[in-house]
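G., the chain you wanted modeled:
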Amino acid sequence: KNAFTVNESLSIDSTIVSQKNQEFIMNVTLRCAKENDIPTLKKLWQICFGDRMRYIDVFFERMFKAENTLIAEVNQEIAGVVYVLERSLSGKKIMYGYAIGVFPKYRGNDICRKMLFYLKDKSEKEGNIFCLHPANEKLADFYKRIGLNEMYFLKEVDASKIHSETVFNLEDIT
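Predicted structure as tokens:
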């Protein structure tokens, strides 16, 4: 089963946006990616993360699944994306939000929050866990500010002191 399926475009609450002292309504639509979105998604990746094209190409060749990629559109133009990687941990299905990006002209309009909460709510309804791993403290603060909760923290371990028979359990994660 796919991470999620948006069978038809889901139009979510409009956002009133102020631009140059003028207000306008921005309708955000969420949908799964399509193969023909890839060039725009690669451009968005490069703008957001600054990675080299070879790295981006490898991701799209090996990891990208259109049906596991949530796109936010404004006026039929891609505004943002969340790639969902499926994993499991101790029998639980984990939906990992990876490489989340919004084009600069759409930032500050709640698009990221809408995408993340859509995925979080959908995952919970299906009995799965949706999670993110912020790349830095600024992102961790942003995720907290939009209402996401911390579910774990990483503990550094000196690998030279780990024996080959050491086992980590889900209960060890606090």
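The beta strands are 10-19, 22-32, 69-74, 77-89, 92-102, 129-132.

Shout if anything looks off.
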